[in-house]
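Pilot study result, target chain (340 residues):
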Amino acid sequence: MTFVEELLRQHRAALGLDERRVRGMRTSVLTPRFTTSRHVVGMVSGARGRPELVVKVPRRAGDDSGTRREAHVLGLLAGTGVGAPQLVGLVEHEDRAVLVETVVRGAELDPARVRQDPEAAVAAGVAFVSALPVTRPADANAGWYERAVQRPLRSLVELVGDDGGDLAGLVERTHAVLAPLRDVAVPAVLEHADLSHPNLFLAADGSLQVIDWERADEHGVPGHDLVFLLGHLGEARRGAWTRDGQREAFDATFTGPAAWARPLLADHLRARGIDPALLPQVVVLAWARSSATLAERLVPAGASSSEDAGRPTPEQARAAVAADRDVALWRHALDRVEQL
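Predicted structure:
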């Protein structure tokens, strides 16, 4: 019996597996190869071999902020109609908070499928982001800039340490560019924060179904998810996997009046009560915030010093920042801000 099968056996009643009629379980383990992956994922099939459940297990005991966050967000999404897994339960097992959720049904929205029908992919993505709920109205969202922008960027600078001022200078440039936005009252929205392959699926009705909510922010910033998603779709349409290719895709997507994503993003900002004239700041903000999540993704929960297992040294953190695609696009957005 595998670890996942034993876990489900022990917690069968708490997870309501009898009510779900999940029997004859067989599991396969999927090990994400991303450097920042903090979980091992188990796929659970029923007696007929059809995948039914996903089990997400933290690699490190106690490093459960991601599974707890995902469980909380899936609870918030229940009944909203947003395409996401259903929460089955969060159980404590061997000093780990293990997440169990349903499998989403649909075709993987991989780059090849995006290229086959880019208009359908974009339409599904825009509809999905537009359906994410507002979690705080603008007049109740004071201090959003400190919480959503300043604090994460500060954490990244602290993790990297002294790199000759490069990252600190990048952050300083970012705050200067974002000055017109930072004091604007904006609502908080539920934010996925990683709308890209392999997290995206197209259901039979054409709607977008999205997995892996461990990076989600209950009180995110309007426009962030749409910028990230449109950037990914722009790369997929062009088959852009090199840094130069990704920068070219960025320009085609966001830069200049002919950029195909600009009207979509402007309409979205308008619908969220934000002046579309702030579009350049929203694009920069999205790539800066996405880059800043490295600070959390590289450091396991509970690791407080370089001696703690799993915590990178400043040199390792600097290498991760230098290699990160989102950081490269953050720099490029700043370089192109006058054309956005």
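One observation from the pilot: Residues 144-160 form the longest helix (17 residues). A full batch analysis is planned for the follow-on phase.
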